[in-house]
Design brief:
The complex is a heterodimer of chains A (352) and B (492). Chain A is mainly alpha-helical and 352 residues long. Chain A has 2 domains: 154 residues, no CATH class; 137 residues, no CATH class. Chain A has 17 helices and no strands. With 492 residues, chain B is of the alpha+beta class. Chain B has a domain of 61 residues: Dna Ligase, domain 1. Helices cover 30% and strands 22% of the residues of chain B. In chain B, the strands form 8 sheets. Chain B has a 5-stranded mixed β-sheet with strand order 4-24-23-20-19. A 4-stranded parallel β-sheet of chain B has the order 9-8-13-14. A 4-stranded antiparallel β-sheet of chain B has the order 15-18-16-17, with helices on one face. In chain B, strand 13, helix 10 and strand 14 form a beta-alpha-beta unit. Classes of the chains: A mainly alpha (352), B alpha+beta (492). The interface between A and B is large, with 53 and 59 residues.
């Protein structure tokens, strides 16, 4: 498979997962606010953590002075000047799908193309204005459809493994950010009139974990919730589960590429998987949830970089040159929010 | 016949469906019965279903100058154009004759230049063509073929005679729409396709692949073929991707390719893999920043050396643009005579060359009657439609011609044939042309069909998609309906 195709498939899956997580986060925050509304709390304290989760506070405050629900939801959902908005994530997923259309099934392509047509449509924008929950649910369904057709139409080869790695790493990263928003909260569950205890329930909901957690633990103890989302080995959105899945897919990819021995990529992912398997929640809390997650995110990024090194950059070294090698114009990679304008113009200049 | 065609007027043009006396041509009989039996709203519903499917499937082109990356479907008119077998036989023979002569000409121009030395064509005219690449003289290309894929534009005049308008021997586009249009018709009018002996076009992908495989060195048993695209911002990106998928070969961008030891490789997750044949949809100028435009971001540094050494084949070859020069086009009948000793089966449109002083004078005196075209432009750009232009426009164009007469040619305004096109709730006549696709590998093959392009604007003679054109499916029949008289009379 072309290196660029691999990178595009990996990012296509990441962007879909990003849009899905954002939808669920917005949905659960709205619900939380409805529950807390009667208690007369400050709206901003619910919306501010969302900006922190997505890491876009600077961009937001470049546009708005205050944290207001409507501004935050617009910013995160439909603003095209927010590179991480749901709209831009879906666009990027779909653009990457477009660059690899010959490799993926028509069903995958049409599911992403339809989702993108919906979020760009006047109908989609109106729906976001008047019944935002329905809008977020439509995006969630679009992501489920993508995952469903990907699962049922993709042969278990390179394409599938790159899809899995992209989905799992993005999910692990997003769940870790969600956990981090609660790292400042007390671990006691006081029967307070304040909205804080609701935050833990909202956290579970934003990870689609509420029901699964309820069946496992009868009591909503914050430490148990942290343990579940971070270390559980059976729940498909827990970080430990996602990292183990990613490791399996990366092992298959390395074996398929004929990579000998233990490359740095497999060392990074294997070590993280083992740490998550043998760490207890008490150890995490002793280190501090925020500190632990900080380190975790660095290690997830390291894995992402190692994937690029191994499957995109490594190719050039496989055949030694006998003569001086012509200068490389640009390195092949996936589509991200901003295209190179010069290249864009030249692409359009070609005679038909 | 039903109401859908009751008010249809062929007017004074050659209409593909109806004679001057509003009699339906025989080969359209079955279709008129079927399409004509629909109500306007039924017809409209089928049209809308097809449009929605194109949008959902992304059968679209990118609109330039729009930073939202807006994509539009290429307007498609459901009523197909039908070409009877006998007519097609002539078209096919004419196209084969023409591409054979063009390839002999290109091979000659890039080697011995016999046709020039024998003064069968004027040397200055050929050698001054801006796409002539003298640095490629003497470079051998596989089997001496230069144009492997050709999309010749044909038109019919007021009498229904076919003419060649352009040859398009560089990177002709549109084949994917020919294939997708047929798929759309299968869904919109399944019964009709079944009842008529329509020749299939879906072998195009495998024919294209065979044509490209023919270019690989004989020593390579299983050649690696790729489609080289400028990228997703090119308006024809959908087509590049579609054709790659039809052929089952990778689609690559310049940055996916790398040169090692004068061979071309693609970067894969498993390391470098050698490429033998490239169907490139990038212009010569952008192919290699070490040889052509230094600022090219689309090309592959070093690819021309690999090409010169015969380590990779390009389709189409480099330098075919010399035959696309509209002044050189005027010489094709002479090429056919010189190389094949035949008369052209498909005539050229009479062409006046700006470079000939007497003809230039004629052009300048008759600007109001002629179509003037810049020799290297395409897509309907750089042209003057004399009769429709204002005095000021004509005067300005006249100045340009005087400054650089070599750059212009002029032709009489042909009254292109018309075809019924669905407008709102009824049919109206619109001008059309035909772009069939010719493939030149171990033999020359013409796909039985092509892209019928439609000038959707009322009265317009410009069919290019960049100028508001649309398209139709083109049905070539296996055999002609013989049991009916030449023309059937429509019911009152």
């Amino acid at each position: 498979m072309l290196s660029r195709v691999a990178d595009s498939i990996y990012w296509m899956a990441r962007y879909v997962e990003r849009a899905e997580n954002l939808s669920r986060l917005l949905l659960s925050t709205q619900d939380l606010l409805l529950d807390a509304g009667a208690e007369g709390v400050d709206e901003a304290q619910f919306w501010q953590p969302l900006l922190a989760t997505t890491g876009d506070e600077d961009a937001y405050f470049g546009l708005h002075k205050k944290v207001k629900g409507k501004d935050v939801t617009d910013f995160l959902a439909l603003r095209s000047d927010n590179p991480n908005s749901m709209l831009n994530s879906i666009r990027a997923a779909r653009e990457n799908a477009r660059t690899v259309r010959d490799q993926i099934s028509d069903e995958i392509w049409e599911s992403l193309n339809s989702l993108r047509l919906f979020v760009e449509s006047a109908e989609g924008k109106a729906m976001h204005r008047t019944q935002s929950a329905a809008f977020y649910e439509r995006v969630l369904r679009g992501s489920y459809e993508f995952q469903g057709v990907a699962d049922s139409t993709t042969p278990r080869g390179e394409i599938w493994y790159f899809l899995r790695v992209g989905t799992c790493l993005e999910r692990a990263d997003k769940v870790s950010r969600l956990l981090d928003t609660c790292s400042g909260l007390s671990l006691e569950m006081p029967p307070s009139p304040k909205a804080r205890p609701l935050r833990w329930a909202a956290l579970l909901r934003s990870c689609s974990a509420w029901h699964a957690f309820q069946t496992k633990c009868s009591k909503q103890d914050p430490a148990k919730i942290i343990e579940y989302l971070l270390l559980d080995e059976t729940f498909p959105r827990s970080i430990a589960y996602c990292v183990a899945e990613a490791e399996g897919a990366l092992q298959a990819l390395c074996a398929g590429a004929g990579i000998q021995g233990m490359p740095p990529l497999l060392r990074h992912v294997g070590r993280l998987r083992a740490d998550l398997a043998y760490t207890t929640v008490e150890e995490v809390l002793a280190i501090g949830l925020h500190e632990y997650i900080d380190a975790l995110q660095t290690r997830l990024n390291q894995i992402g970089e190692a994937i690029f090194q191994t499957f995109v950059l490594h190719a050039d070294l496989t055949l030694p040159a006998e003569e001086p090698v012509p200068e490389v114009v640009s390195i092949p990679g996936a589509y991200h929010a901003h295209a190179d304008e010069d290249a864009q113009i030249q692409q359009q200049q070609q005679q038909q | 016949m039903s109401s859908l065609f009751n008010d249809y007027q062929p007017e004074s043009f050659f209409d593909e469906v109806f004679s001057q006396t509003r009699k339906a041509r025989t080969h359209y009989g079955a279709m008129l019965d079927s399409v004509g039996s629909l109500t306007p709203s039924e017809y409209s519903a089928r049209q809308k279903a097809v449009d929605a499917a194109f949008l959902r499937q992304g059968v679209t082109f990118t609109v330039y100058g729009d930073d939202q990356g807006t994509e539009r479907i290429f307007p498609f008119d459901l009523m197909p154009r039908i070409i009877p077998q006998r007519e097609w036989e002539t078209v096919e023979a004419g196209l084969i004759q023409r591409i054979t002569a063009l390839n002999l000409f290109l091979n000659d121009v890039y080697h011995g230049q016999k046709i020039i030395n024998d003064k069968a064509v004027p040397a200055e005219l050929v050698l001054s063509a801006s796409h002539y690449r003298p640095e490629f003289r003497g470079i051998k290309v596989p089997h001496g073929i230069y144009i492997h894929i050709c999309g010749t534009d044909l038109v019919r005049d007021g009498k229904g005679d076919y003419y060649v308008l352009e040859d398009n021997g560089r990177c002709p586009s549109g084949a994917s729409y020919m294939l997708e249009n047929r798929n759309a018709m299968k869904r919109a009018f399944p019964g009709l396709l079944q009842s008529l002996p329509v020749r299939p076009v879906d072998a195009y992908g495998s024919m294209l692949r065979e044509t490209l495989a023919h270019l690989a060195p004989d020593s390579v048993l299983d050649p690696v073929i790729v489609v080289l695209t400028p990228g997703i911002y090119n308006s024809a990106y959908f087509e590049h991707c579609y054709l790659a998928k039809q052929m089952g070969v990778p689609i690559v961008e310049g940055r996916d390719l790398i040169i090692r030891n004068d061979r071309v490789f693609m970067r894969t997750t498993k390391g470098l893999e050698q490429v033998h044949v490239i169907y490139r949809r990038i212009d010569d100028d952008f192919l290699d920043p070490q040889v052509f435009r230094k600022d090219s971001l689309l090309g592959v540094p070093g690819i021309i050396n690999a090409y010169r050494k015969g380590n990779v084949a390009l389709a189409n070859s480099i330098g075919t643009g010399v035959a696309d020069d509209k002044a050189v086009y005027a010489l094709v009948p002479k090429m056919i005579k010189y190389y094949l000793d035949q008369d052209p089966i498909l005539p050229n449109v009479p062409t006046h060359l700006g470079v000939e002083p007497k003809e230039c004078e004629y052009i300048l005196d008759n600007l109001d009657k002629l179509v003037v075209k810049a020799v290297n432009e395409s897509g309907g750009y750089g042209m003057l439609m004399g009769p429709h232009a204002s005095k000021k426009e004509r005067a300005e164009f006249g100045e340009r011609i005087k400054k650089n007469p070599r750059n212009y040619i002029a032709q009489p305004v042909l009254q292109l044939s018309r075809h019924p096109v669905f407008v709102d709730d009824h049919f109206e006549g619109r001008h059309i042309d035909l772009r069939p696709y010719v493939l030149c590998g171990d033999r020359v093959r013409v796909v039985p069909g092509g892209l019928t392009r439609v000038a959707l604007k009322k009265g317009s003679l410009v069919v290019n998609s960049s100028q508001g054109g649309g398209s139709k499916d083109t049905w070539v029949l296996w055999d002609d309906p013989l049991d009916t008289p030449a023309e059937t009379s429509p019911a009152a």
